[in-house]
Amino acid sequence: MKYCSLCGGTVDFRIPDKDNRERFVCNNCDAIHYQNPNNVCGAILTRGDQVLLCRRAIEPRYGFWTLPAGFMENGETVEQAARREAIEEANAEAAGLQLFGVFSMPYISQVYLMFCGELIGDFSPGDESLEVGLFRQDEIPWSELAFPVVGCSLELYFKHGTSQVHHAWFSRDQQRNHSIHFGD
Amino acid sequence: MKYCSLCGGTVDFRIPDKDNRERFVCNNCDAIHYQNPNNVCGAILTRGDQVLLCRRAIEPRYGFWTLPAGFMENGETVEQAARREAIEEANAEAAGLQLFGVFSMPYISQVYLMFCGELIGDFSPGDESLEVGLFRQDEIPWSELAFPVVGCSLELYFKHGTSQVHHAWFSRDQQRNHSIHFGD
Lengths: 184, 184
Known about the structure:
41% strand, mainly beta, nine-stranded mixed sheet, homodimer, three-stranded antiparallel sheet, 184 residues
């Protein structure tokens, strides 16, 4: 950020009065421009013992498999966002969605809010998917999953079903290896 | 938003290529400036049958009682944000924090992520609190609570304890009356 989005003045990155962390502050109108984490909402959609996966037609991770998920938009609930993403990426509708897990990724300032529910009717690739398909546990392309949270969500689902709401966070080391942590 | 924060050019509010909703788009450098919901993280901190509440020393709702909670910052987990807010608002530390509820407020594009845990040691008002105190269920100042999510969280806690993770969303009508919804 270089310019104030309200007045076009230049901004400094400094600690405002009565605050304790650096923010972008306008040198002209004094507006403070906060930057905060984004939510990614998605769903594990199941049919019997199968789970719906999408092969990404967009970067990052073009060609890798993922659960339908994407950035939450203003004006919607977390569940509406998860439903919208399933429709956009896989033309897939869900019944009985329940909150499945909340996963923080502080290294990229994202929070994943995942749901689980039953896939209803047909499905087909949306604009952001090369293909979509149903996979049993032993058919999941584990080595071709797009993001660590996808693999962890699937592992938690196949281990625990929907018996609990998971809460965890991920860390990433300098070699970009990810670890999942339950609790502090 | 009137100016591009990257180049200082003017912005239009229009639907970008390959998108389906209006965004602020720079007329000069074509940057798309997404605006997304914010997370508010907080905690129900308990000691025996008492719950910690803070009386707000800031607007909105100056003078009303609330659970310690505030905007999640970049680079932290939802749980770290809840802990930080308890320290900032009440100098209060928690043990055994567990996810308690996820509450969407689409009319203000916020998501509350509430935890529940045991209050450890002393507490005292932080800069944003006029006073802090412990309240039994029949001592809660129900008519002087700052926000609907505070009252609903307390009701859910006194009814269910920590036996489940709640997921709900709030609506607000034109008279600013709020309703809580579980499920769609």
